[in-house]
Specification:
With 123 residues, this protein is an all-alpha fold. The protein is 63% helix and 0% strand. The protein is built from 5 helices and no strands. It starts with 5 loop residues before the first helix and ends in a 7-residue tail after the last helix.
Amino acid sequence: LAVAMGGRAAEELQCGVGQATMGARSDIADATRLATEMVASGGLSEEVGPRSVEVGIEPSQELRSRIDAEVNKLLRQALNMARRALHDNTELHSAVTKALVESETLDGSSFRHLVEHHHVEPG
């Protein structure tokens, strides 16, 4: 989830919190789908419990609200984790940003080269 929220976190770092564009919308949609599956189908939420709302009867409004709250919590935690990772790795982030501004794309070997030349702090 944090990787998926990385684009939004990077935009916020460049533009300011609350000033991001729609550029990360597909990543946010993917993260939302994954978080929803984790909570509503995978039983990966203490608040909702080990259940799958896809099986059986229609969930109550209260359960849907709890699922929604858990999904929001997971997405906010993931965004915060992505923000920390970018903050802790500002030199690498700046180098990647510069490379992308110059060439618009960055292949795997070019990215690995940048990572190898910067100290990386895990998020």
